[in-house]
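Fold it.
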Amino acid sequence: MKKFTIIALVVAITAVFAVTATANEWNLYGSARMATYYIGEDLGKSLEATDDPNVFISVKNRTVANEDKPKTTQWELQGNSRVGATVKGDMLDARFEFSVSSDEAGGNVGTRRLYGVWKFTEGWGLKVGKDYTPITFFLSGQVFDNDAGLLNVGNAYGSRRAQLALEGMLGPGMLKVALIDTTTSDLGTPNSTAETLIPKLEASYDFKLSDTMSIQAFGGYQTYDIKTAQTPLGTAATPLTGTESNSVNSWMLGLGADLNFGPFFVKPQVSYYQNGAAAGWLGDRYLTGTKRGFVNTFNDDFGTDFNADIVSTDVLDAKNIMAMLALGFKPTEALGLEFGVGYVGFDTDSIQGISLKNNYMEYYLQAVFTVAKGVYIVPEIGYRDFGKDEGDRPPFIVAPDTDNGSLFYAGAKWQIDF
């Protein structure tokens, strides 16, 4: 039924655009992408396999078959395969785009982008709908993991979100400012709910040095409250009537560049985050570090039993710094080479001498073969080092570091655009 609804929607949109084709320039497009990779994982080192007594592996680092080094072959349609259309008119532009992913013999369809732009004056427009947010600049060409592009691992990413955005040329560059739907979580706090009053804000400026060189500056801010029933919960005779309120404030700043020198390119970026995961800028990998029950997270990670009562009632701050570098060389139209590296560092506030740190690194090397117009084969090898969860402990208390393991992959993406 879902597939039929999507097909009907596409047909209806097509019919509308066909009727207005005389007023608008309308272009259909699609991209089919296959992922074919060998993937080998190392889920960490057990205490018995290392001489370091402060490195251990917990049950959660093993598969259900009790494996710590699983291997697999990926052979599937990528989830970012797509069909869509762009529409251009005198005063209005529009776009819709659907993703198509494989599910054995079946498939799944989702909405990637759907927006319209009102060009209210020369060089400026008001965007309404779902699209990439202003902090997103695609600098890396990494193709593994559905064209991961080092997103959230060095390359700042705001994802595709519902937004009201103002976009236009300001001096020698493009300014984008957007009010975006807020990303919230109760951060695992019992008897709590998230309350939002204002949308997320993001802005960026893409300064054009020339036709082939630009520098990007960007930032964002989000805030919401966590409403929590006071503890203890009380009894029937003395029911609970109070509510605590704690704010989760998130912000980020970044700077990057896209520099092309003939057949060579250099694309660096660095960004800093406070509570970035709580705003959806870092996925949910670091979300548990931003919470009131921080010691509970620490105890889960390290097998310790520190008293959670030492944690203050405030929400803790989790800090991240991301950096990336992509280097490329394109000697001919048919061949391109690229190397990339991404880094994420993580650190939390310290409570009674307890804090949590982690460093994540990722590397890849690829060749891009353009075998015909719109036909690409991209062999790529890469390595992900998930680092260690390292805890700062109070004096005389030992909590071991958690080795999060690594991942190696080798294979290729096959892509035909039409």
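The longest strand covers residues 243-261.
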